[in-house]
Amino acid sequence: MGSINAANGMRVFALLAQKAFRRNLQYRASHVVTNIASIIFGFIYVAIWQAATASGGTGDYSAIHFAQYVAFNQSMLWITIFRQNGLGIPDAIRTGAISIEMMRPIDFHAMSVTRELGNVWYSFWFRTLPLAVVFSLAVGVHVPSRPETYALLFASIILAAYVGLCLHYITGLSGFWTIRSQWAIQFLHAAHFGLSGFMVPVDLLPGALAPIAAASPFAALQYYPARIYLELSGAEALLWPIFWSLALTVICRTMTHFARRKLEVQGG
Amino acid sequence: MAAIRLYVQLVSASLRAQMQYKVDFLVSLFFDAILQSVDFALLAAIMLRFPEIAGWTIYEIGILYGMSWIAMSLYRTLAPELHDFEAYIIQGTFDSLLIRPWPTLMVLLSRNLELRKLGGALQGFVVFWISTNHLLAAGRIGWTDVLIMLGLAAIGTLIAFSISLATATFAFWIGRSDDLQTFTMFAPITASQYPLTVFPGWLKGLLSSILPVAFINFVPVQYLLGKGGSVWSLASSPIAACICLTVAYSFWRYGERHYHSTGS
Fold it and tell me: How does DSSP assign A178-245, residue by residue?
């Protein structure tokens, strides 16, 4: 639908993101609880790795690397995978509000993503950063020794957030074709749990699982940014994230087109 | 007691309703089981490279994992409405429970049995079974130990239930409890899949006192595997369960009395 011109469109998107950010600000107090939970999870995983590697690290990773790897990922979770489930689309499908949402004179995909960008921006400042500070007090910060690491890290974090948004969008939109929407979200989280490398570095996974996970979009969420952060990988760690950013965008646009067709056919 | 008979009747009705869709139930069950088993897949991935964590092998940790999941899944099956309790406060539907001539908790528990959560218990039991078979073959434990462990897992359900009940009670004051559940249930249960000894002192203390998941599996199993503790370690589990239930239930009743409704 192209009835909003470019200038207006950008303003609308910016407004959506801003409102989402402001909405999150109202719940700052309750977010403290989930931040504490994240901290505890981080300490749990760090403790497990410390015990496991007591006789020495493995691969590229030393004992300190594991702790910082886990801490980095725990902070990152809030801007990668911890999004509103399916970007709110499953709920909209369930209540029927999806027909109104899709009827708006604005690109549905862009609207859903920019709306969530407000949440991402909030999560970055009020979750990722505070968590990173707390963890750095416990396990230290890896200060990059090469100047290009900063640029690579910035790029990988942006890509990670974007891939996360795409994955949630696709999962949410799949509700048009599935009977039970809960499975799609559960599957997304399970796949992330197993393939993203948020706790076990992907190259330490057994057998064929390692290359499969490394090539999956989930690794772009946690594993590659963490590798860049620890300076265990360079620019080559951006290849898969870039690929998936493009591929998932195509999938998102295509699915939106078919979802809209389905909606019109069903007379929603 | 009349309340118990009513509970059984309501639960049977709920079960029969769910069983109308047998295939859906079975598929949900197995799908759930597979999804939850990703937890163990990660654990196994670690242990394939590092044969021991704090002196515990993969099979010993498998017992901890299995018992933890069985206890947690049984609680999630029996008390899903507690897990999502804040909806009752936010939407004001708790009032409709208060006006009934039955204990609110009983009505709440009879509302809905989420049978598909048994998938978690299923995969936990599979891991437990494989682990115990290995240890039995190695002569580390006997059959009575296995039965004791299963019994303790069932008792562990009561501990998980108590923690959840106490967490849900907070909703009476702050209107929210679901986020708190991440903190009081998910984090401790994840920790209980691993030997308690790996954790820093403050965390060990937390998991043995306010959030006593240590008594679901670690404390008794430590004794049964000859890694420490005494015969009292076995008794600590049911004792902890009784204390937890009493404290949690008293807290719930206290919260009920001080409940201010939305005022519709």
Answer: -S-HHHHHHHHHHHHHHHS-SSS-GGGS-TTHHHHHHHSGGGGTTHHHHHHHTTS--GGGGHHHHHHH
Nearest-Cα distance to chain B for A151, in Å, is 31
Contacts of A190 in chain B (CB under 8 A): 35, 38
pLDDT tens by residue, B106-153 = 888 988 888 888 989 999 999 999 999 999 999 888 999 999 999 999
> Looking at beta carbons, which residues of chain B come within 8 Å of A40?
183, 187, 203
Query: Is the ipTM of this structure higher than 0.95?
Result: no
Q: How far is CA B146 from the centre of its chain?
A: 19
Closest residue of chain B to A190, computed from CA coordinates: B35
pTM equals 0.90
Contact A40 B183 (CB under 8 A): yes
- Residue among B69, B83, B81 nearest B163 (CA): B83
Residues of B in contact with A44 (CB under 8 A): 187, 190-191, 194, 199, 203
Among the residues of chain B, which ranges form H helices? 2-19, 22-36, 38-49, 58-78, 80-83, 86-90, 94-98, 104-110, 118-137, 143-169, 171-174, 178-181, 187-192, 201-208, 218-224, 231-257
Residues A34, B28: C-beta atoms closer than 8 Å: no
- CB of B114 within 8 Å of a chain A CB? The answer is no
Structure tokens given for A125? 């400042």
Minimal Cα distance from B50: which residue of A? A52
The boundaries of the domain holding residue A18 are 6-266
How many structural domains is chain A composed of? 1
Residue A1 lies in a domain: no
- Residue B56 DSSP SS3: strand
Distance CA A90, CA B250 (A): 38
**Chain B contacts of A180, Cβ < 8 Å?**
28
CB A222 within 8 A of CB A199: no
